[in-house]
Every structure is written in C-alpha cells, then in structure tokens.
Write a structure and sequence with these properties.
This protein is an alpha/beta fold. It has a single domain, classed as 3-Layer(aba) Sandwich (Alpha/beta knot). The protein contains five helices and five strands, in the order βαβαβαβαβα. Strands 2-1-4-3-5 form a five-stranded parallel beta sheet. α1 runs parallel beside α5 and α3 packs across α5.
C-alpha cells in the first residue's frame, strides 16, 4: 500500500519544503509515502471559481489510477483525532488496494465531479490554513499515525 498526497500547486516556502521532506523520509520507514504535485493554473483572472475548479478537476482525475482509494482533504470532511485517524488509516491499509490518495485542491476547493468520485473526505481543522501549510500538517499526521500504530513514543495522550 502506498500513500500519496496529491496537491494542486507546488510548495514554494523553502522552510516548509525542508520540514515536509523530513516527515516524508521519516514515514518511509513504515510505508511508502510521496507527494505528487499538479501544476497551478495560470492566467486565472478571467476564470470564475467554478471554471477553475473544473480545470483542476480534470487534472486531479488525470492523476488518479484505477483502484485508488480517494480521500479529499476538505473543510467539510470528517474531523478525527490523531489516534482515530491512525485507526482509520490502518483499516484502509488492511482493506487492500495499491494506493490511498489524499487530495488537496486549489484555492476554491473541489469541483462537484471530484466530490462525486471521492471515497471519503477528511478535515484537518475547522480553521483555515494555507494550502502549503496543510501539506506540512498532513505529512506530520501521516508520520504520527505510523508511530501510533507501531506503539512508538512520538504521540502523547
């Protein structure tokens, strides 16, 4: 089982990149984990939010593979505590399949067609964070989940 974080737009802050890469390398000890980046849309001033979401949807769908378990990171998704997320992730990995793909959309969220193909939706917080920071927070939560599942002392209750 491979875990993919699919993002629209790249991380540009070098400090965040360093931290994200650190969590990816730590997580590799437990499970293959990678970030796949789709290009950010260009010349969007003439496009409505709906048009931007539709174009991003085409890119997202093009990056998915048959059999992917698709999870949107969306403000309207279900919130879980870290231990609950770890247990959920363990069940998903045990259910089989090649990839669990977590998706961070563009600035306006997801097109309805992306919501329709998703298997699940998760919210990391009720607060709003930049998409670049969410990448770091999510990478850390994947690492945290792995340490929880392996009874390692990283997470404290």
């Amino acid at each position: 089982m491979k875990i993919i974080l699919l993002t629209v737009g790249k991380t540009t802050d070098k400090h965040l990149i360093t931290l994200i890469d650190d969590y990816i390398s730590r997580t590799a000890h437990y499970v293959p984990f990678a970030i796949e980046t789709l290009p950010e849309l260009k010349n969007t001033k003439a496009l409505s939010a709906a048009q931007q979401k539709a174009l991003e949807a085409d890119m997202i769908k093009g990056a998915l593979q048959a059999g992917d378990y698709v999870v949107l990171l969306d403000e309207h998704g279900k919130e879980r505590r870290s231990v609950e997320f770890a247990q959920w992730l363990q069940k998903r990995m045990a259910a089989g399949g090649r990839r669990i793909v977590f998706v961070i959309g563009g600035p306006y969220g997801f097109d309805p067609s992306v919501h329709a193909l998703a298997n699940d939706e998760i919210s990391l917080s009720q607060m709003t964070f930049s998409h670049q920071m969410i990448r770091l927070f999510f990478a850390e939560q994947i690492y945290r989940a792995m340490t929880i599942l392996n009874n390692e002392p990283y997470h404290h209750e």
